[in-house]
Amino acid sequence: MTLEKKIDLPEGMGPVTPHLVCDGAKDAVAFYEKAFGARRLSFVEGPDGKVMHAAVSINGSSVYLNDEFCDMGAVGPKKMGGTPVTIHLTVGDADAWASRAIDAGATEVMPVAEQFWGDRYGMVEDPFGHRWSLATPGEKQLSQEEIMANMEKAMSSGVEC
């Protein structure tokens, strides 16, 4: 049995869309425009000025966001003490994307570097507490065996949580 049913999505929307809660969603939209070149798709403000729903397109994928509504359990990562979720962006130049995000106010979590699986990869945290990984695929597609051998070498450094 399949649960899939063909649906027509609006332009710029994907079937899986991260939905971010931000303390200051208007500022978050402006940050994503500056840091990631986001394109605003929709923006709905409530009578109190809070963002009820916004949608942006980042590098061809959609992201929803809204303001915090604590009485409804909608709180951002900063109020929760952090986030276990990372939003992954595959881009043509991870170094340039990370630099632009940092210049816009993001904090570097993991510097962009060559990784054992073949990507050039790093991570930033935006001013609202959401983490974004930035990856540029390597020119050569590594085999599973190469990735495993590289992983064993990389993990021998003993880094743990």
TrEMBL record:
Source taxon at top rank: Bacteria
Gene3D superfamilies linked: 2,3-Dihydroxybiphenyl 1,2-Dioxygenase, domain 1
Domain VOC: 12-137
Name recorded for this polypeptide: Putative glyoxalase/bleomycin resistance protein
Organism this protein belongs to: Aquisalinus luteolus
